[in-house]
Structure formats: C-alpha cells, structure tokens
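Why predict the complex rather than its parts? Because the way molecules touch one another can change local conformation, and only a joint prediction can capture that. The input here totals 564 residues.
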Amino acid sequence: MTTVANGVNVQALLDAREVLKSAPEAAQFVWRASSKWQNGVHSTTTVKEFFGLGQEQTHRNEAVFDADHPEVFAAEDNGITPIEYLLVGLAACLTAGVASVAQNRGIQLRSVEATLEGTHDIRGILGADSDVRNGFNDIKVTFNIDADASKQDIEALVAQSQKRSAVFDALTNPTNVTVEVA
Amino acid sequence: MIERGEVANSWRRERWDSFRLLTPNWQSRLPGLHYEGPDPDGYMTTAEITEFVERFAKLSGAPVRTGTDVTSVRRAGDGYRVTTSRGEIACRTLVIASGACNLPTVPRFAGAVPASVEQLTPFGYRGPGLLPEGGVLVVGASATGVQLAAELRRSGRPVVLSVGEHVRLPRTYRGRDVLWWMDASGVWDQRYDEVDDLTRARRLPSPQLVGTPERATLDLNALTSMGVELVGRWADVRDGRALFSGGLRNVFSLADLKMERLLGTFDEWAGRRGLGDEVAPPERFAPTGVPDSARWQLDLNSGEIRTIVWATGFRPDYGWLEVPVVDDKGRLRHDGGVVDSPGLYALGLPVLRRRRSTFINGIEDDAREVIAHLAHHLAVRR
Ligand SMILES: Cc1cc2nc3c(=O)[nH]c(=O)nc-3n(C[C@H](O)[C@H](O)[C@H](O)COP(=O)(O)OP(=O)(O)OC[C@H]3O[C@@H](n4cnc5c(N)ncnc54)[C@H](O)[C@@H]3O)c2cc1C
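Output of the joint prediction:
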C-alpha cells in the first residue's frame, strides 16, 4: 500500500478494535454535556468530561456552545439554533469517517467539503399543525471530494463512512431519551 | 451418522412450497454425484433436491440412523459421549454436521408487535394462501425475503419490504448464471484464511437471487416494479408503531457499489482469460431506485398490515452441545472445521474453508480436508 497522509492514525483505531473485541467493558463510553439558560431562548452548553476505557477522561480544552434562535424567530441570535447543531454533528462525523476510511484504504485526500441541508416545517414546533413533526423532514448531505481515487472509490468511501457513523445512526434510528427533573 | 428426522430432513421440513434452490443444477454436486438431468442450468425444487440427497445416501452407503435425536454431546475420556433419543454412543471423534440454519432468527422487538398482527418465520410459511387477507410486512431483503415478498405480491397482497444491508446480484451476467462467474472466476475458491474479515464473511447475508425457469433477476428494482413498497431496516417498535431506519439510501449505495466491484472483477478475469468471444459484452445495471419518500414508521394497529414474515436469517442450534466451543454469539469456534476441542469437527457451515463452503457445492473439498485431519488425529492418538 502506498503511504498516504490524511492525518488519521488508523493503526491506533485498528489496534483498539482488536483490544476491545475481547474487552467490551472498556468500550463503554459516556459522553456528557451540561447547559445553562442565559436569557430568552439563549443558552450555553459546556462539554469537557467524558467516560471511556474504564475511567474518567477530559478533553484538552473545555468547549462552550451558544445556542439561540435567529431574529426571524424574534430572538437575539447569540448562537445557532439547536437543530443546526445536529447538522454540525452529522457533517463532522461523516467527514471524520471519510478521512478514516480513506486512510485505511490508502486513498490520499486533497480536500473534503460537504454541504448539508435539513428541511424543517416549523409548524410542528409551533403547534400550528399536529400532523407535522417537530424535527427535520429530510436531511441532504452533498460531499465534494478531491482525492487520488476513482468516482466509484469515492462513493464507496462516503457509503462506508455512513455505515460506521455514530451521528448518522443516531439520526436515522430511534434512540431512547429520558428527560427528568433532578 | 445420526439424523433426527429422515435423510434430507432440512429440505423436507424447513422450506416453503414454491422453494427452489438458487444455485443451478450443475452446481449441486456431492462427492461422486453430479446432476445428469436434461436441464443443467435449471434450479431444483424441494422434491428434486430431496430426491438428489436421498440418491446420494444410497450411493454412498452411508450408515444413517434416522429418527434419532442427539440430545447431548459431552467430553468423556479422550473422546465424546453422545446421548440420543435411542441410547448412548461413545466415540473418539465426532463431526458436527447439524446444519447452519436450524432456527430462524427474529429480533427481540417482535415481542412488542400487537397481537392482532400474525407473525411467521420461513419455517412456518408455506405459501400466500395460508395467510390472512390483507397487507404483509416482509422483514429482510436477502434471498428468502425477496422471494417471499415477490410471491406474496403476486398473490395480490399489498407488500411492504423492510430492507437492511443486503447483497445485490443479477441472475445472469454477460449471458451466464452469476454463480457460474463466482465459481469459474475463483471468487468461491477464496480460502477462509485469505478472507480479510472472516467474521463478516461468515455472517454475509444470502444474495438476492431466486431460481426460476425464466432466470429472472429479483433485485429491489424488480420488486419495486411489481409494486412492493420498500422501507428501511426495522429498528424498533414504539406504541404499536414499527420504526424503520432513515438510512435506506445508504444500504442501496453499499449494495450497488459492491455489485459493481464484483462485476468489475468478473470482467477483469474474463479479459485476462481471453473469454471475450465466449461471453456476452459487459453489462451495467441501473442503480437501486430510491423511493420518493420511504416511510419510516407504520402503525401496526391500523389494520394495514395483517401479517409479518420474518426473513431475518437463521442460526444454528447447539443446545445439545455440552462442550465449551460455542462463542457468546452462539457460533461454533473452529478453524476451518477443526473445532476447538480434540477430535471434534464441523462441516456444512458458511465459509468453513472457502467461500464455496456456504453452498452444497462446497462440501466435497471441505469434507476431504476435514476428514484428513480427523484421520490423522486418530492415527496419532492410537
Ligand atoms: C432457506 C435456505 C436456502 C438454501 N438454498 C441453497 C441453495 O440454493 N443452494 C445451495 O447450495 N445451498 C443452499 N442452502 C444451504 C444449504 O442448505 C446447505 O449448504 C446444506 O444444506 C448443508 O447441508 P448439511 O447437511 O450440512 O445441513 P442441513 O441440510 O441443515 O442438515 C443438517 C441435518 O442435521 C439434522 N440435525 C440437526 N440437529 C440434530 C440433532 N440434534 N440430532 C440429530 N440430527 C440433527 C437435521 O435434521 C438435518 O437433517 C440454503 C439454506 C437455506 C436455509
């Protein structure tokens, strides 16, 4: 295999896969976020700690995300809307997948760009029509990839990245969500 | 040889009425017994395959004790103690040839399906006539699922097919049966220790193929044009609603890309072999058509669906095997049929020693190699 440099340490991932096959407990991760209401529909969410490989872990830096709504919603637009964060997560997850799979398949990437569009009928969240769902109706992701590979190989990269994507799975399949008051 | 039923029991008892093999007649080969009838490119019915296996039993003079159920196998001394419905047997070596498909697998959420909907597995299914009138939800789009969906649709019923990852193949390619290509080009000869991801290869679903006199392709496009509605992989049941994955497009892409790649390797092989004149020119097939808007939920209480047919695969049953050689997924731990316990062997499992092992066609080479190991084991230990 030619040496490609996409900056993904695939060997570490493959090694982890082997180790975790026989140690499923270590594969149990818990991702965490905590949020705080600011004012109006503006909130900030902080992400720093998570659990994995059998112990507490911390990100190198704490990350803080502002979420608000745009002025057309009569809000102050101190940050993107919460549903847009789903697009952020999906784009980042599929892109990471493309890079990892490319590295594993010996494909040198030059650029990977994606545009995402989620169509959303806001009558759902406004309670204007009970037949309209609250969430996205459809999400469309369009990748533009420049790489040393045929069109078919690039399509296969994108397909494999969806197959192994956490966020793609979380959006396309139901997840149990429990919301409680402490 | 111990058999709980009759010779060819799985073919007699575990197949639906219209069943035919998906492998062509010339490929159904047992050691020393080849198809010699008038239609080598046809596909055997259950009566024909049963008769074929019976003929082999006579020809080989195999000492089959029928009507004898093995209820337990235990390690004893340097061999095994076998308890059967007709007494005990002690043996030095033992070959597990009890089949890979003893039980249909059904997802756990089947328990949450409302009682008003009838549920069937391929073992209980005989034909459309025995189902209640009304819509059918067929779950799983591998060989069994696509075949039953087509048959049910032809009976006039509305059919919804839930599609997860699948293996798409055309029935014929460049004028030859696609399984001729698998065989001739050497794909089926790939050995188990050469396969990249053996666990995956052994779990690979059966291809979307059906054996019909017309040699027709039965892919998802064919089903769509018959009026079968495609939905995503069935993920869960909530409040009496079936929830399907929104990832349908990607399972289509994965299967289309894999098929293209496979056909590409056939073309390369044919090119290298200079077969250009003997086979038709390369073909490419339309991508799997994506429904305008695939439903991702279905109300199982609405009466739209009266029957669910689970075509979600099969698994072996090792409930009688009291030797610790079964992994936590219920699969036998073995290396090319040599089981992880001295003197214990297996035959008839997917990709046991090569890709061909999954099919009747694979037993000849597998048996020779596994039995050679067994004979050596006996010779050394004596
Ligand atoms: C739906 C379906 C379609 C298939 N179509 C094709 C095809 O088109 N072409 C092809 O080549 N292959 C096909 N196969 C695969 C084919 O069935 C196997 O390759 C072949 O049957 C393997 O033969 P076997 O004798 O190892 O197993 P089986 O045919 O399963 O025979 C196992 C035998 O063991 C007996 N048995 C099991 N447990 C016990 C016990 N505890 N005590 C006593 N006896 C026991 C059973 O009664 C059975 O007779 C298909 C399989 C299925 C499930």
